[in-house]
Input
Amino acid sequence: MDTPAIKLTGLKKRYGTGDAAVDALKGVDMTIWPGEVVGLVGPSGSGKSTLLKCLGAVIEPTAGHMELAGEVIYDGVWKISDLRALRRDRIGFVFQAPYLIPFLDVTDNVALLPMLAGRDNAAARKRALDLLTALDVRHRAGAQVSQLSGGEQQRVAIARSLANHAPVILADEPTAPLDSERALAVVRILNDMAQQYNTAIIVVTHDEKIIPTFKRIYHIRDGKTHEEAGEGRPI
Amino acid sequence: MINLASRDVLHGWGKFLFTGIGLGLLIGATLTMAGVFRGMVDDGQVLIDNSGADLWVVQQGTLGPYAEPSSIRDDVWRGIVGIQGVAETGNAAYLTIQMQQAGKDTRVMIVGIEVDRPNRPGAPPYLTSGRPILQGHYEAIADEKAGLRLGERVRIRRHDYTVVGLTRRMVSSSGDPMIFVSLKDAQEIQFLKDNDALVNERARTATNPAFNRPGVPGLLEAAQASATQARNVNAVLVRLAPGTDADVVAGDIRRWNRLTAYTKAQMEDILVAKLIATSAKQIGMFLAILAVVTAAIVAFIIYTMTLAKVREIAVLKLIGAKNRTIAAMILQQAMALGVIGFLVGRMAAGLWGPAFPKYVLLLPQDAIGGFAIVLTICALASSVAIRAALAIDPAEAIGG
Output
């Protein structure tokens, strides 16, 4: 636990200029360790999505410092030239809806990431099948996405986020469309995967069902975060 | 690496196939238009080739006999046949008429040929069935496209003709099938007045003191007889001896016989460049419009298909797919659509082409050229969708 998976210091994001400028992030500090599942909660418009997009290297912060697995990726400017490769190789994404590619089968949805990273097809498919096994959806490996239940689709999406051994997974409201039982099942899976693959997972949520399960929670309001200990309720 | 385009196409193959078929019908119409133009050129070429002539001698200052009316006396051949290098001549008369056959109108070109011996210039080079014209009157050879059968009797103006032979690809420059009759019959069809007009003409001549002079017996009868004789033809077709320079002979005919003579190359120029020039421009315009319409439709289809995948493209970009991976997916789909469209279009043109009243000639080189143009259009049309796809923000995959 010597190197944090994510370390943010004074991260700011301003949209627009002049009178129309809006400060979405006003100096966010955050440290997440490998193998940890942390909740990021806050009301609508608090800056959750903006923070997630900055962490995902989708939008550029305005100021601050950002490290990923010990490497500085932002320090006033991007320190990495190929942000696309950064997202592909070092950040996993799990969305509110699974957003799987509908024209690929389950295995290829997961194998696509390693393939995009240049791994050969056989190795990519083996990795995909291993993850599908770990997530208990191996039996649907050849199925089309439309044939899966919502819970199965979300598991496949989690498998995809892990496909390139990313040290960080950003999960954006991953339990929003699920009932309590399935929502808790997803959180359990995220915790298992974090432990098994030593991956840091940030779960953006305002789902009251799952908030008590986090051991650490970052509250975000008006562009600023404050950390508090969670209940860490067993699932 | 997975081929995203093929997976997407296979996933929604029904929609893609039907879109391709729709596009194919449009491409089929475009190919058919090109085939119509080629058919017109070929009709003109066939008309020249099948006439068996090396020179066409026509009325001075005209573009006859196919492009303009031409009328010369039927004995001018005597002055031509003696020119060095001329192997054979044949008088020919051409007349396009509307013929009633089996209750429907058929437009045909009546061709009068000399039937004293076979293979005179102007005669059909071969028969698919039947025999040549052997009698001086009331026998005909018809192009198969006229829809006549051997032994069938057909009424042309005042007389019935028996079809004794059938030939193929003997059409006018307008694509009308030819019916060959003897020169005498053709002259009568073309130049002779009807009975009422003849009676009137005789009465008029009889009252003319210049022709009805007392003390000049036989003058009136001679004058009246000349009115019932047709001595004109439209052209003399000339076949040259091997090794003869056609331009030299044509120059001699122009100089000494006060007639206009065209070589094969000049006649090709008249038929292909001059006679169908306006039609060619018309078809060219139509082809250009169809190409633009095809491009617009392909662009619209690919653009719509791309917009339907905004979320997937955003996810692909978010998880690290390169721009060229996404561009290749869209380009390959556009190309696949073009290939399906072209195959359907080529088959459609091949199926409905023969049903056209005029000859539709689908040349392999046109098909290859058309295929290249379709692929180019698809590639260009996909650029709109590619631009739209590359502009999709990966952040769209993240809510909020």
Observations:
- Chain B has a mean pLDDT of 90.
